[in-house]
Amino acid sequence: MQITTPSFKDNARRALGDSDLRRALDNMKTGFVGKRLLAVERLPEFDALRDDARDIKEHVLENLDAYLERFEARVKEQGGQVHWCRDADEARRVMLEICRDAGARTVTKSKSMIGEEIAINEHLEANGIEPVETDLGEYIIQLRREPPSHIIAPAIHLSKEQVADAFRQKHGQFPGDRPLDEPRALVDEARAVLRQRYFDADVGITGANMLVAETGSVVIVTNEGNADLTMTLPPVHIVLASIEKVVPTLEDAATILRVLARSATGQEMSVYTTFCTGPRRSGDADGPEAFHVVLLDNGRSALLGGEFHDILRCIRCGACLNHCPVYSAIGGHAYGWVYPGPMGAVLTPGLIGLEQAADLPNATTFCGKCEEVCPMRIPLPKMMRYWRDREFEARLTPTLSRLGLAAWTFLALRPALYRVATGLVIGILGALGRNRGRFRRLPLAGGWTAARDLPAPQGRTFMRLWAQRRRGRP
Amino acid sequence: MSGARDTILGSIRKSLKRGPLSAEQAARLEHRLKTPRANVIPARARVSGRRRTDLFVDEAERVSTTVARVADAAGVPGAIASYLAEHNLPATLKVAPDPALKTIPWSEKPVLSVVEGRGEDGDAVSVTGAFAGVAETGTLVLLSGPEHPSTLNLLPETHIVVLRRDHLVGSYEDAWALLRVMGRGMPRTVTMVTGPSRTADIEQTLQLGAHGPRRLHIVLIGGAEDDAE
Ligand code: SF4
Most CB atoms within 10 A, among A88, A317, A404, B39? Predict the structure, then answer.
């Protein structure tokens, strides 16, 4: 997928002017945010579970090599295969090879963010294999040939009318004047179209929410049941998972499941949580003949142990997006790559490089809501600050900001001068603004005053007022 | 791809500033895996007897699963027939080749036509057993195997699960413990099902029956009599 992260500011400006997008994003508040709160209120142990979930993942990261080896051994014992891939390129090559060996013409896919990360669909298409997304949201955006805008609700930016238009254009097999006004009709049409695709597919590709070292199982969570059909009907199942997805035991998986759905959609549990272990067994009436796990690193092992280590605990629940004032205003596309919102602002620079993603760690109000709701207790704001430090060191910060920061540092380190300078500025602004009480425009602050007025200061600095008050004078 | 494997493991160790785990450290991990320990289990899940049954039914109904209770296996055909009639559904059942389901006296309800096999496109109604029901969230635990083809959970429009009351457990951890006691390792799939298939991908409005069953109905055996405990 094409990376548009470097033009984040333009993307964001365009998104802010898009009223359809604003309306679509408003649904998030009653949907995800409200429902999460209800689910959390119903479970007094929620915070204790978050602590456990964090500790489990922390323990895994400290022993990641050993747990991956253990997981691999279990998969092989059950007749599955494990493919280690350093980067996107290797993963694409391995997956194409498996598909070719299976003589695949079409593959069904259940939603996988890592699939987006390595752009597997484009690669398969370029090699004559048709990938069919089966998650409804993902299917819709595939028809529209656009990237997902949310990690768990890929089509959250669209209205039902836009979905109906896409269906009318691409589903030529139905009468053109059929009614598609209601979500029900749209869901039923997609169900009917995709049902046949499951049976036609030669390979099914799924992501993984977790890998269990104890049993060699892959845990896949959906509400629609599309991953289960994808992994059950075609003769070959490929699981695409990144290395940090492993957990030790079934008990540990249960703990993470308890916080996952509640944080994501506010459900107590997603509808289908499947622990999938190896290919079809003797006597089974269904299931794939071959089971492959593609283990992708793609820069993650380098993040371990460093400033951004904690982001590797992320379980992709989307809570930090849903609660982010920046994401809620501009949606996911503005972020320009696979991972939007706070988790994207931390992860994206680590995966595609800070030069390309320099704007993302600055796209924040530092309200701290993301960290507050993150089920894995990931300190997202702190890590955005780390990226900003690196930007400054790497001279990626824009010149004007650098100069401003340098001037401020100079003043802040000289308290006497600081008091004189601020006293002057406040005095002048106070005098100028006395009549109207506010400024509609200010030099050097046009961006700030474009959307709001600056109240005029009262003519004295806080320090001066404080000193006066202590001397007992008003 | 042993090159890639070594590079990735090497890179992990380099970042963690250590070599491979020592024998002692490895043994400690192995011990953690061999003797799985539960983490926090919600108090809600730690109930038994009648309260557990009630919790299971309540939680299942919250997620749009429906539940009918019968005294014994003999009551199952009648319960299913009236459910299907009430919802105007065809009385053709695709039934899992499960020994426990064979003891159900299907012939007592001649309106039901019963075929055994795996799930297929176009099946209206499937009937399967369940390994366990987890009261915590009204979740069914379904194991794949010769007696339970997983297509039966997915392809039919309506999925009916016959569950015995003594297969109810409190928490997910209880279900794992049962699975380990069986001693047959992990089945190919263990699917935890919490309600019928759904999606909210279009304007966040909830719609049932996205790709899987539109209806999930549980016939709970043994619920009616021993409520006294
Ligand atoms: S960072 Fe936390 S809240 Fe955000 S997606 Fe990851 S786990 Fe969820």
Answer: A317
